[in-house]
Specification:
By secondary structure, this protein is of the alpha/beta class. The chain is built from 12 helices and 5 strands.
Length: about 240
């Protein structure tokens, strides 16, 4: 690898070491990586739009949706949206094709994002609650490690459910309500979705219906149960 990059092995080793983090879950990821390493986001967008343009030329109606993760500041979204819009424009020009519609939205994964949802709604075409991260950031639990103690919590009646499997309505759910209320004051028609395991949880879907969620996204094996739960929630 060092040879291909035309640098010394020592320099490569130092670079790899500099990228290691003490706590990657709260570190250099999501939109932060897109801001410090914009070429990564440009590469991803180029792959999406090259594919979309190819399909459009074959007569298919394509509307890509780009979702920017881990936003905590409106200025992060503004910066990256501008970066992506400009790069997408160059891709259309390169292919000599009339631009077709696309949307740029954001994940709502941090408590702070919930509290500034009205500001984010001024820039985003859609929201999607990243419930795994939002639950982690709200509880201070690690999704990867909760299995080590959640059964003890259940046995001791400290908690009655795993909040990564069923939405915590009184904590995480309240943050979601705040975000939805603030966002829809700015854009009443803003599409707002939910992703994560709770998106396919039959016990959580009626709550999502009640608070105004537009759609849910979940693991493929959960889709049949999610569809049934959505239908039941609509009927009730």
């Amino acid at each position: 690898m060092a040879e291909k990059l035309q640098i010394s092995a020592e320099t490569l080793t130092q670079k790899i070491a500099s990228l290691q983090e003490t706590n990657p879950m709260l570190g250099h990821r999501g939109c932060r990586l897109g801001i410090t390493q914009p070429q990564i986001y440009k590469m991803q967008v180029e792959a999406i739009f090259n594919s979309a343009i190819r399909l459009a030329k074959e007569g298919m109606v394509i509307k890509p949706e780009i979702m920017i993760p881990l936003i905590a500041e409106k200025s992060e979204l503004v910066y990256l949206k501008k970066l992506l819009v400009e790069h997408i424009g160059t891709i259309f020009n390169k292919h000599h094709i009339e631009p077709f519609p696309y949307e740029i939205g954001t994940m709502i994964e941090l408590p702070r994002a919930c509290f500034i949802a009205d500001q984010l709604a001024e820039e985003a075409d859609f929201f999607s609650f990243g419930t795994n991260d939002l639950t982690q950031m709200t509880y201070g639990f690690s999704r990867d490690d909760i299995g080590k103690f959640i059964q003890h919590y259940k046995d001791k009646e400290i908690m009655s459910f795993d909040p990564f499997q069923t939405i915590d309505q009184t904590g995480v759910g309240e943050l979601m309500k705040i975000a939805i209320s603030k966002a829809r004051q700015v854009n009443p028609n803003l599409p707002i979705g939910v992703c994560g395991e709770v998106g396919g949880d039959p016990a959580s879907i009626p709550f999502f219906q009640d608070i105004g969620i537009t759609y849910v996204s979940c693991s493929p094996y959960r889709v049949p149960a999610a569809r049934l739960a959505v239908a039941q929630a609509n009927l009730s």
